[in-house]
Amino acid sequence: MRGSPGRQAGFSLLELSIVLGIMAMLAVAAVPRYMEEINRNRSRVTTENTQAILDAARAYRLSKGTWPGGASCINAISEMVSQSPAMLPPGLDVNKYNNTVSTSCTAWTFSVDQSIVEDWDGVLANNLPGTSIVNASQNRIRSTIGIPGSETANDAKLSRVAEQNVELNRMRTNLLLGNNDIKEVGRIEAVNAAISGLAEASQLRVNGVSQFNGEGTFQDGISLQKVVQENTSCPKTGAIARSSTGVILSCQSGII
To answer: What keywords would UniProt list here (predicted)?
Structure first.
């Protein structure tokens, strides 16, 4: 059936309004999911970048004995970027929420501060160890680490670097090395030493009483420094000494 000559093809205003309304509802439903996905990706990358900064600061402290970035650590990120080789890639001074990442420190701790967005500050605080919300109105979080070896998770471990808290360098139980060697030792201070095998030393000095239960072999001379007078009393039978002229004397029945 032919239409009237004055009728035009296409959508009516009502039909167009319905289509636009449906598209608007679809867009309204999709935008929150789209924004959530964006923030989820931002959160993941921000977590990784923050952890990278903390790990680099910990490595810097282990290597140099101080936190990076001067006394207050305000320039920590740029200093770690400038190391050769670089400890961090450039660009981590601004997070994925386009907010500045700042650093600070005390003698014992190193901290990273940054602002996130609403509702996602708590997500990062849960994902990053040692992180808390320090300013809820600004969605600002702070991630803090202690001197390597001083964190709660490591307080039962022995630190290999000198610590202000000497307990972190002190063993509180037996040290078992599985028959492995100890090398590069400067000085050993001990109450007792039990050695079942060979003990080698270029010089041996004993300040107290010594006892040898087995045979002794000396490849060189023995110098007696105990000087006594002949025909005097002596405390122990078998003890030997010398006279002032070098004659070797022995204690026999209490007389030397």
So the answer is: Membrane, Plasmid, Transmembrane, Transmembrane helix
